[in-house]
C-alpha cells in the first residue's frame, strides 16, 4: 500500500512567527487536494550554524512542535543538522522529500537554502523537484514596517527586551515553557514565592529584567510577574533563569511544566541593598501586572 502523499513546508521555523505561518498555511491549504500537511525542519540547536553562534534559538523542540501542531501540521521530521549537512540538493530532494515524505507539494520562504554548504535556493528546488514530479510554491514575504519578518529580527528584539514588538512579529506572546525547578527559596522568605524555570542549553535568553507575564497552569491562566536574570541581590554566581510570582495561585509546582507568556517589559534587573528593599520593589512590580 502506497504511503499517503504529503505537502511539506521547509524551513528552520525558529519562533514559528508570522512569516513562517505564511509558509505553513500553503502546506495546510493542500488538504483540499488530499495531501497531509508536514514540516521538514532541524533541531533548534542548528540555529548556531545559521547565526555563527551569535544568538540562541527562540523555542526548544517541544514548544516549537506544539506551535507547528497548532498551525495544523500533522507530521514533523526534525533531524540534527549534522546528519544531513553533506547531502547535495539532489540527494536531499530524493531521500528526504521523495522517499521519507512521499511529497507531492513543497513550499518554503524566498530565502530558503538547502544542500551541502547551502548551495541551493528556491530556483534549484523548483528544478530538482520538477524532475521528481513535486510541485513547488514559494510564500510571499511577510513585511512589517518595511522590513521582512525574520527570526533574526525577533531574536534582536527579545535581546533588547522589546517583547511587545517581538510578540507582534511572532503572532502571539513569546512563551517560556518548561519544568519548574527548585531554587534557593528566597522568594518565600519575603512572601513572594516564585516558580523557577531554566533556559535550555543554547536557548536565547531575554534581556535581564522584570516582565509582566501570564502563566498557564493546567489550562488556567494567572496574571504573573517574572524576573529574568541572575539574582544580583543574592550573593554567588549562577546561570540566568526565569523566576515567576504567580498572582492568585498557591501550591507546589515543582516538577510540573508551566507556560509563562511574556507581555511587556517593566524594568531592568538590578541589585538591591537589602531583601526588604527587594520586597518593596516586587510589590510595586506586581501592581503593574494587575
Describe it.
With 290 residues, the protein is an alpha/beta fold. The protein has 9 helices and 13 strands. Strands 8-13-10-11-12-9 form a 6-stranded antiparallel β-sheet. The protein has a 5-stranded parallel β-sheet with strand order 3-2-1-4-5, with helices on both faces. Strand 4, helix 5 and strand 5 form a beta-alpha-beta unit. It is elongated and about 70 Å long.
Radius of gyration from the alpha-carbon trace, in angstroms: 22 Å
The biggest beta sheet reads:
6 strands, antiparallel
Instruction: Report the uncertain regions.
Output: none
What separation lies between the terminal Cα atoms? Answer: 58 Å
| Percentage beta strand | 25-35%
Q: Could you state the order of secondary-structure elements as H and E?
A: EHEHHEHEHEEEHHEHEEEEEH
Widest β-sheet, arrangement of strands:
8-13-10-11-12-9
Average pLDDT reading: 89
Tertiary shape: elongated
Structural class category: alpha/beta
Tally the beta strands: 13
Share in helix: 25-40%
Amino acid at each position: 500500500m502506497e504511503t499517503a502523499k504529503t505537502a511539506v513546508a521547509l524551513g528552520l521555523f525558529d519562533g514559528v512567527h508570522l512569516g513562517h505561518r505564511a509558509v505553513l498555511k500553503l502546506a495546510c491549504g493542500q488538504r483540499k487536494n488530499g495531501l497531509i500537511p508536514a514540516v521538514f525542519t532541524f533541531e533548534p540547536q542548528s540555529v548556531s550554524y545559521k547565526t555563527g553562534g551569535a544568538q540562541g534559538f527562540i523555542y526548544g523542540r517541544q514548544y516549537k512542535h506544539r506551535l507547528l501542531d497548532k498551525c495544523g501540521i500533522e507530521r514533523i521530521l526534525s533531524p540534527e543538522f549534522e546528519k544531513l549537512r553533506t547531502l547535495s540538493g539532489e540527494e536531499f530532494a530524493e531521500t528526504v522529500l521523495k522517499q521519507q515524505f512521499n511529497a507531492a507539494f513543497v513550499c518554503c520562504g524566498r530565502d530558503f537554502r538547502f544542500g551541502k554548504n547551502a548551495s541551493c535556493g528556491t530556483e534549484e528546488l523548483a528544478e530538482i523537484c520538477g524532475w521528481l514530479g513535486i510541485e513547488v510554491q514559494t510564500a510571499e514575504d511577510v513585511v512589517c514596517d518595511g522590513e521582512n519578518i525574520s527570526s533574526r529580527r525577533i531574536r534582536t528584539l527579545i535581546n533588547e527586551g522589546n517583547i511587545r514588538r517581538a510578540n507582534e512579529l511572532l503572532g502571539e506572546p513569546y512563551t517560556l515553557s518548561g519544568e519548574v525547578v527548585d531554587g534557593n527559596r528566597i522568594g518565600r522568605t519575603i512572601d513572594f514565592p516564585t516558580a523557577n524555570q531554566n533556559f535550555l542549553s543554547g536557548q536565547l535568553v531575554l534581556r535581564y529584567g522584570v516582565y509582566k507575564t501570564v502563566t498557564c497552569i493546567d489550562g488556567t491562566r494567572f496574571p504573573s510577574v517574572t524576573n529574568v536574570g541572575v539574582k544580583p541581590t543574592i550573593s554567588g554566581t549562577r546561570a540566568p533563569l526565569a523566576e515567576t510570582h504567580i498572582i492568585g495561585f498557591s501550591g507546589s509546582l515543582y516538577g510540573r511544566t508551566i507556560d509563562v507568556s511574556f507581555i511587556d517589559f517593566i524594568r531592568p534587573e538590578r541589585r538591591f541593598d537589602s531583601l526588604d528593599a527587594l520586597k518593596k520593589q516586587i510589590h510595586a512590580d506586581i501592581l503593574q501586572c494587575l
